[in-house]
Amino acid sequence: MTIKLFDLIGADDARPFSPHCWKTMMSLAHKGLPYEREGVPFTEVPNVEDGISPIVPVIRDGSRIVADSFLIADYLEETYPDRPSLFGGEGGQAAARLVEGWSQTSLHPALGVIALLEIHDRLAPADQAYFRSSRESRMGKTLEQVTEGRAAEIAGFAARMQPLRHMLKSQLWIGGSEPLFADYIVFGALQWVRVTSTAQLLDAADPVAQWFERCLDLHDGLGRSVPAASA
């Protein structure tokens, strides 16, 4: 039975952009598992599988429903052990938690500021209203006030990638000799902005940019199947 993936979309169903949903798409492709997407706008997420989760991704695999990208990766690893591993063992699974923590506490806050208004503008009207209200309530500022720091975040973003840049001196992937879920965590963050924003964050000669290009080519170019954002 084909797995069903609920992922986040804006006004264009063909441009999924959530960093967490991209982790799950890459994980399913890594495992070689067929799946079908159902795009869900922000205002419809509470209706997914009778409200099982306030966020997506959510997958249905037969009778099993799993939410949260890391828990989905854990589920796929446990349920399909005969397919390529997402973690390469218990140590890789634990290390992926560290990568997730770095991504969500260092990369996501900056990327959220950089892409905030462009994400808003790519949503359908009802979702724009929800997005503005929820983000402004959370941040205590208007979207426009938050993005006053956009130029500074763009200028400083390359420095945030130094831990990965240092690692890439000795290996091609965060996973070592091959990509693992840890790679998909950071890929998802950068793909989020690639799909929603025209901001240029990394020089083409940067080892991190080259790693990201390799990620885009994985799984028959799954990442490239959604073109980069244009003005």
Automatic annotation (TrEMBL):
Q: Which SUPFAM superfamilies match?
A: GST C-terminal domain-like, Thioredoxin-like
Q: Which GO terms describe its molecular function?
A: transferase activity
Q: Which Gene3D superfamilies match?
A: 1.20.1050.10, Glutaredoxin (3.40.30.10)
Cite a GO CC annotation: cytoplasm
Q: What is this protein called?
A: Glutathione S-transferase
UniProt-listed InterPro entries: Glutathione-S-Trfase_C_sf, Glutathione_S-Trfase_N, GST_Omega/HSP26, GST_UstS-like_C, Thioredoxin-like_sf
Any keyword Transmembrane?
no
One Pfam family for this entry, by name?
GST_C_7
CDD domains reported for this sequence: GST_C_etherase_LigE, GST_N_etherase_LigE
Which keywords does the record carry? Transferase
UniProt domain GST N-terminal: residue ranges = 8-84
